From TrEMBL:
<dbReference type="GO" id="GO:0005524">
    <property type="term" value="F:ATP binding"/>
</dbReference>
<dbReference type="GO" id="GO:0005829">
    <property type="term" value="C:cytosol"/>
</dbReference>
<feature type="domain" description="Methionyl/Valyl/Leucyl/Isoleucyl-tRNA synthetase anticodon-binding">
    <location>
        <begin position="58"/>
        <end position="210"/>
    </location>
</feature>
<keyword id="KW-0648">Protein biosynthesis</keyword>
<keyword id="KW-0030">Aminoacyl-tRNA synthetase</keyword>
<dbReference type="GO" id="GO:0006438">
    <property type="term" value="P:valyl-tRNA aminoacylation"/>
</dbReference>
<dbReference type="InterPro" id="IPR002303">
    <property type="entry name" value="Valyl-tRNA_ligase"/>
</dbReference>
<comment type="similarity">
    <text>Belongs to the class-I aminoacyl-tRNA synthetase family.</text>
</comment>
<dbReference type="InterPro" id="IPR009080">
    <property type="entry name" value="tRNAsynth_Ia_anticodon-bd"/>
</dbReference>
<dbReference type="Pfam" id="PF08264">
    <property type="entry name" value="Anticodon_1"/>
</dbReference>
<protein>
    <recommendedName>
        <fullName>valine--tRNA ligase</fullName>
        <ecNumber>6.1.1.9</ecNumber>
    </recommendedName>
</protein>
<dbReference type="GO" id="GO:0004832">
    <property type="term" value="F:valine-tRNA ligase activity"/>
</dbReference>
<keyword id="KW-0067">ATP-binding</keyword>
<dbReference type="InterPro" id="IPR033705">
    <property type="entry name" value="Anticodon_Ia_Val"/>
</dbReference>
<dbReference type="InterPro" id="IPR013155">
    <property type="entry name" value="M/V/L/I-tRNA-synth_anticd-bd"/>
</dbReference>
<keyword id="KW-0436">Ligase</keyword>
<keyword id="KW-0547">Nucleotide-binding</keyword>
Amino acid sequence: ARDINLDIKRVVSYRHWCNKLYNAIRFASLNFPPSYQPPEQPLQLGAEGQPALPQPARWLLSKLSGACAAVVKALEAYDFATATQRLYSFWQYEVCDVYIEVMKPLMALDESHAGNAEVKRATRDTLWVALEVGLRLLHPFMPFVTEELWQRLPQPAVGQPVPSIMLAAYPSATPAWDNPQLEAEYDYLNAVINKVRGLRNDYSLTKQRPHLFLVASDSAKAAVLQRSTLELATLSTSSEVTVLDSSQGASSSPPLGCGVCIVDDATVAHLLLKGILDPALEVAKLQKK
């Protein structure tokens, strides 16, 4: 036996993290209509009779499959530290920080418009799958919290009901969900978002939602940015995102009055600060430094 250097502050931190799990389930409950029925079969990408999944949903399912594979492999090797770290990462950085935030504007879509009802249904189904499977993955490490939260999720109407999460099968990876290319694209998007958040912090922007211009000299990256404007606007707290492909020529230029940060060798972010900040005041701040 050996002594363990236990930091009580970490215990308190993980107690707060339990509140985050509760809030994720509560968010789902608020966005699942009373008549909501979970998917009767595992979600299959592009399967007949199932709605096409939006890009964030396909990304989350890929991350969920990877989390299942990593956790099972770690448990089989008795590597509990790696298992808990991967679980924490999935819940914290993938479900809560990204998917739930991106889901909010999707839930505000008007269902009277063509296709919006299917998008909302697919988004809800993906959240339910991520929460239900995620709780079963987490159960060996947090049995009481996961049992309580799992019982609050709606259960499929078909098949024999499972009375407790303890009796539910432990999750395994779903290779059909794996999408390494989409995960790589989201890694790139997260790099852009982190840079923009840093730029907002430099200018002490809190509630303001400026227009974001992204200049990409790589056409492939420009295409990724173009089809991800919803995620970029939501996660960077921007009013609008405009993607400019600099290979198109001089006409693809952001307006004057922007704060600028370099994301990588092919991407530059321009945050429109004109009308939000006083240039004279900003110059005075720099002179004081």
